[in-house]
Amino acid sequence: MQKSPHKRLAVVIAAMAAAAIAVPLGFGSSHREAPNIALDPAADNTDVYAYTANDAPHALTIAADWIPGQVPANGPNFFRFDDRARYYVNVDNTGDGVADIRYLFKFKTKVRNQNSFLYAGPGTQDFNDPGLNVIQRYDLVRETLKHGKVERSKTIAHKLPVSPPNIGPKTFPNYQNFVDQSIKTLGDGTKVFVGERDDPFFVDLGAAFDAINVRVGTGNQGQGKDDLSGYSTSATVLQIPERLVTRNGTSVSGPNAANAVVGVWSSTDRRRLQVTNASAVGGAAGKSRRRPNRFVQVSRLGNPLVNEVVIPLGQKDRFNRTTPNNDAANYGKFVTKPELAAVLNALFGINAPETDRTDIVQALLQGIPNLNQHSGRNAGTPVDTLKINLGTPPSMTPSRFGVIGGDNAGFPNGRRLGDDVVDIELQVIAGYLVGNKVPLGDGVDKNDKKFLSKFPYLAAPDSGFDSNPSQRFEPAHPPTPPGGP
Ligand SMILES: [Ca+2]
Ligand SMILES: [Ca+2]
Ligand SMILES: [Ca+2]
Fold this sequence. Notes:
The protein has helices at 5-20, 175-182, 211-215, 306-310, 316-321, 327-336, 339-348, 358-366, 421-430; strands at residues 45-51, 59-70, 86-92, 101-111, 134-146, 149-161, 184-185, 191-198, 232-241, 261-271, 295-301, 386-389. The protein is an alpha+beta fold. A hairpin with an 8-residue loop joins β3 (86-92) and β4. The protein is globular and about 60 Å long.
């Protein structure tokens, strides 16, 4: 699986559109004609979550995932963050779509014995065990910005270990040791974990838009198949005291406080020209040019599925290169006139409004007034950040539908791990907020594994030995009869 789930979803929609509407939609001749970032999975953000955890009510918890579709048994070269890329978690506390605080993860991988093909020897206990052959570590840098320029930069964690993939019980008989050793509380009170986890995103790609399900209104009645079950992701989890992310450097007194709302997104930078083998570029064989090239953004992610279902394929790589403060100018027209609404109407005749969708702009990009809209002069500026009101108390009885399910502590007021963003966004695009309430859904209501009630919250990854991710290829409905279609 090369593309992120979201990008695969976009392909599904593209395929549906091409099949259902007899007009050329310009998606290219091949579904394999993927956007650039799909060819660079190590830099590909898959999901970002920002919420107030029940056991940490005065902190902002952010989980940001990278590298889609990781098969747990993918040895001997297991997935890891790219030492040459820069991974960011961005926070905008003024509402202009420009980061004010950034957390930068920089990685370095060490292979103790280059002559061994093993990631670790049998019975490796923890990070201190000499049997651990491959170890990736990271520095965490906190940057404070003014008008988008880094004003202060401080390394707040140095050479912390990345929790490795769960290779199997013979290699790692006590895998949890690595997880425990990867959870750190830093000097400023920030908690951090980086490493391999179960992919928390859940979606039934096959049935998401199943015509029959939707026609009879059973889209929300289960029986879907979690296509991402059994896959892992490379996760960063931060739990940051509120005072370190708010615009005035103090904690949030309540939901109406002027500093209560922050916007969150993740991004990845690479050097503009990055070659792994100088001789491969021809000409100056053996002479590697060491002139450093500047870093440029190659991927970003705020609200789930915005780049996937709203931004046309031809614009996706541009989206990845641009920043939220320019979203309205660059992409506003796609949001107010979402192609998906037209596609849903063509397929299912559900009367989704197709133009002037200011309701979607508000829900995803501007923030909802008196809930998660920034206060002050940038109030209502449309930017693709995950906007969360830190004064909203966490819910003890969360609804997977979040705000449209009557639970103001969930998406789009931030995003929790369990929020069913596929169902929510399908329903919002169908017109939920303007009175067209259609029970669309993919039939997958929750992750295949239970989330943890404590940090780092994301479930443990399957071990390579025990994993069974190929289940995702099974059809959600009775298979094709023997002999084929
Ligand atoms: Ca800002
Ligand atoms: Ca999962
Ligand atoms: Ca769902």
